Every structure is written in C-alpha cells, then in structure tokens.
Amino acid sequence: PTSCPATGSPCGSASSKDSVEWEGRSLLKALVKKSWEQVHVLGCEVSEEEFREGFDSSINSRLVYHDLFRDPLSWSKPGKALPGGPLEALRALDKRTGSGPATIALDSLSWLLHHLPCPILCQTLHALSRQDSCPGDTLPGEQVRVLGLLHEELHGPGPLGALSSLAQTEVTLSGTMGQASAHILYRRPRQRPTLQTQWFSILPDFSLELQVEPLLESQPPSDLHTPSVDPTTHLTFNLHLSKKEREAKDSLTLPFQFSSEKQQALLRPGLGQATSHIFYEPDAYDDLDQEDPDDDLDV
C-alpha cells in the first residue's frame, strides 16, 4: 500500500485504536491535517492549546474546537455549555458542520464511552456519519467524515465490537523495534473486508511518512576462536572402553538373555519332577462360536 486512510470513507467513519505503548493522538492529528475541508474537533482529553500545537495557521484556521476538556459539566460557567452535556455536544456537531463537506474528530471515543451509554453513543455516531443516506442519495456537499480515537485497553469486547461495527475503516496501532505500524481494516458495502499493514512515522509537523517494513536484526556471528566444550566431560558413565573392558562387557550375560542351555533346562522337566496335563471335554450346553479363533486348538 502507498497511502494511509486520511479521513475514512465519504459517508462513514474511521476509528483509530491505540494502546499505552503506542499512542494514537498523533495519528489523529495527522489525519486531521490531511483533511482539506473544515474540521470540527470534540476535545475531551486535552486542551485546545495542546491539540492545536504543531499545526500551522492554515490548518488552525479551518479547525473548529468544541471544548469539553475544561468544563464538561458547565460547573465553572453555568449556562455557557450545552444543557445536554456530552451527548448534546455530540449531536450538535451534525448541525454545525453546515452544508459543505466536513470532518468530525472525536478525541476521544473512550472518554465518551465513560460518560454515555454504549447504545446511545453508537446511535449518535451512526447519525453523524449519515450512513442511512449512503451511498446513493448523498449529495457531494453533504459528505461528513467521522474520526474517532479509542483507547483499546480501557474497554471490554462488547463496546469494542459495537464501535468496530460502525467504522468503515479501522486502524489498530502497534509496532516493533521502535517503529510504528498500522493494521488497517477496510469495510465496504457488499464487499469482503480487507486488511493491510502499513509502517509509518509521524513528523514534528504531523505529516505522515510511509516506510518499508523493518528487517529483523541479524544475530551476531559467533566467535570462531571460542574453545569448544567437550560434551562428555561431566557424564556419569564412560563412553570410551578399553579392549579388556569391552571383552568383559561382551562376555557378560544379562538377566533377560537366555542361552540355549538355559532354555532347554527350563523347557525339559528334570528327573523326579511331575508332569501335568489339561483335559477338556465340552458338554451339550457349551456355546460354540463359529468365529472363535480358539476353537481349532487341540488342548
């Protein structure tokens, strides 16, 4: 692949899942930078100054920041925030995007999940992405793209699965050897999901730089002058026998070995030993089995 998903599908949503080791806010800001339309950011975890840091004036001029970080419940300035709290702020984004194409960035979905029930959040996200009108009757000027940052380690499989089903592009961050990678899952209507892996790095100005897959570090060559260790040094038995020891070993009769003389002595009764015989006469009530393999034995 030669590109990374910028803002998801024209009428859908894209989610970025990060972890403690690989943070995803930098990728979210990189995707915001690649959006050339107006961007509405619902900031819940960082201040507006911190989110705008690193962007130039051209990006900040088309970025509208809706602050839920400083006063999410309108305690310090009553009447200034939306009366409905985070839910009303999320629903109001659909009205504030206007008639032109726009991108909505949610920083983050994890914060919203901790303050809103999962079913209500999923219904609101579904309405924001306007999937009900896709793909036939959506006008080009009504395209809305939704980006969401999700801290995967904070949630169980239920909420993760519900939010994943809404996203048409799902990016999971990981990496190795200090280099980040994005596992990108594409979901398209009436098509099979496709999975790609893209290695990347984010520059200080939040530009994406795609990279090739890193090679595994080769093992250092072993020292040819290292003295070899004899594996037979600490054995509890001797592998090397002298000629006399080998002759004594070969002449020794083990308990489970039977010579011909010993076999004859065991099979032939000695003088004075009584012999015994077994006689069997079947009666009329014996059950004779025609398939019994022992019937032909002369006992």
UniProtKB/TrEMBL annotation:
Keywords: Cytoplasm, Nucleus, tRNA processing. GO terms for biological process: tRNA wobble uridine modification. One of its GO terms (molecular function) is tRNA binding. One of its GO terms (cellular component) is cytosol. InterPro entries: Elp5 (IPR019519). The keyword Nucleus applies. It comes from the Eukaryota. Pathway: tRNA modification; 5-methoxycarbonylmethyl-2-thiouridine-tRNA biosynthesis. Its main location: cytoplasm. Residues 283-299 have a biased composition (Acidic residues). It is found in: Cytoplasm; Nucleus. It holds the Pfam family Elong_Iki1. Belongs to the ELP5 family. This is Elongator complex protein 5.
